[in-house]
Every structure is written in C-alpha cells, then in structure tokens.
Amino acid sequence: MGEATLAEIQDSRDCLLYLVSPEKLDAKAFSPQLFAALKVGEGRIAGFLLHLPDTDDAALVAASEILMPVCSANNVAFFLQDRPDLVAWLGADGVHLVHSRKSIGEVRTVVGKDTVIGITAADGDQAMEAGNAGADYVAFDSAKTDLIDWWQECFVLPSLALGEHKPEDVKTSVAAGADFIAASASIWNHPQGADVAVKQFVAALTEALPSA
Question: pTM (2 decimals)?
C-alpha cells in the first residue's frame, strides 16, 4: 500500500496529505475520528503517522492494532516513528526516522524490502545520504522552502514538508515542490471535526496545484 502510493507520487508529482497523530490519544475513542478524516480525504491522503512519544510498547502496539485497520480500509499507509522493530512485528506499512541510531541499511534489514522508510533530514547532504542508502522519502522543515525547491528540481525521491500546516499554508509548500504535506493539530483540533478540516485541506491542495 505505502510503496504503491510513493511510486504514484514519483510519477505524478502530485501533492498529498500526510497526517500525524496527536501525541496523546485513546485509540478506541480516536478511531472514529481517524476513519472520518481518512474517508473524506479519499485519494488525497498518503499516510498516517502514529507518534505517541510517552507511551510504552504495550500501549503503542495496542493503539496500532486498533488504528492500522482504519488506515488499511481507507488505502492510507500506516507509519510508526523510530520503531522499526514494532513496524516489522506489526506488519505496518512504514517507519519514519527522526532520532533513530540505526542506519537506513540496518533499518531496512529489520523492516524488509517492501516497507517504506522515511527520514527527517536537516539539510540536503543528509537527505542525499539517506536517498543513496535506500530511503523512500525525505522530510524537511516546511520553513526551508529553498531546500524543498532544490530537492524537487534535482531528485525524484519524494519529499515531505513537515510543520504544523494549516490550509492557508498549503500553497507555499506546494509551490516549493513538496510531494507530501504534514498536518496534525489543525486536523484533530478543528472545532467542526477532523473530516471538515480534511475537506478544507483538500480544497486548498486543489487550488494550489497547477491545472492539468
């Protein structure tokens, strides 16, 4: 699922959403909210990253087992951050590396050849090193628009624009050439619900992307 989505992005140079979870959640209570957001964003959401930094392994696995099927039902790739071991054990679609001490090669050995590996890169050199080592996408701070623009001009490896995007911020990241745009609090804390927030993001993406 995740690998196919990335391949499509590379071919189309389209731009899709990449949703990041709240850092604290009750998975059972959150599940309907996630389903509504992914359902309304059908075809415009590439991935969902479950990031629960203060959660123990048992709780992270339990949350993943509830939320992974929600993502699968909506054809959205499910990611964990910095836990290639749990990604492999759960059969998740991908792992996003931020603070991992393992190399891309070591992570690939753990998760297997078909699992998506993304990594946050501080600069172009780190991104190129990750790409050469086998990363499937690289992530940059959305404020570094010159870096994102340079990357998309020189490389086919997809890029993710990190940061707390709001719908009005989408145009800048799209213009810079990002393939994925991260969103979190602006989705889950929307006063009218996550599904309404996703609709607003999709509208902003549609407006920002060049016409075919």
Answer: 0.94
